[in-house]
Amino acid sequence: MLFVCCATLDEIEQVQSIGYDRIEFSARLLAERPEADIREARRRMDAVGLGCLNLNDYCGGAPAIVGPRYDRAAAVEYAKAVCERAAILGARTVGIGAPMGRQLPDGYDLARADEEARDFLAHTAEVAHPYGLQILWESLNDRICNYGVHLEEAVTLVDSLALDNVGLVIDQHHMAMMAEPVSLLADAKPYIWHTHLSRLADTQRGYLVSDERPAYLEFLRMLHALGYDRTASVEAVNGALSEGGAPSLALLRELWTEVTANG
After folding, report:
1. pLDDT class of 127 with cuts at 50, 70, 90
2. Residue 16 parent element (H or E)
3. What sign does the CA torsion over 197, 152, 140, 192 have?
4. What's the confidence (pLDDT) of residue 201?
């Protein structure tokens, strides 16, 4: 298992010094930066021997992923900007969370929203394909958006597309907010290509804490039982990397060692 830290361009050296295997950046923030900044970030990553695994935080409210503002042309143009930056950084995957892009007005036709989501993913994946990038859909939770908040629906969506470069990023925090049992991961098994962990009781997604150890352990045990050993990323937007980064990594490594040692 590779352990990853979601961080900013300014935190590259800090993430490496803590000991994470890879770094993960916000696509939304990268899309706003000039290409020169991205190339300089790659130079700094290469200098310290730290690779970029994934881009998360895909976009803000634009482009819309579903809803009355959905625009395929805008989605494709944005995907080009994100994928170009992901390629420069050497990323392998791009996660599609983006709650602000998933807000539906009351009464919106859900069948239409499903078709828009499929269209969005299919065309984003088409843009990503020449770069060798995988697009990962993420089920969120109903405290932050009102579309795509159930893991079962995410599995159905990705399965319906049947595209080689479209899979899932599984976020334990969102599953906890939706009171979804880890047993649901069994149906998602073919599509689990990346995972996110953060503090579960904190809606602001803090760094991992030891008092939630049993829940992290249950999540990791289920992943291991399914044969998953790719990547686990600490996605904390609340708290300082200097305070929470090292303890979170130590806890994850300890838990994974326990899981794998027990078969």
Report:
1. very high
2. helix 12-18
3. positive
4. 85
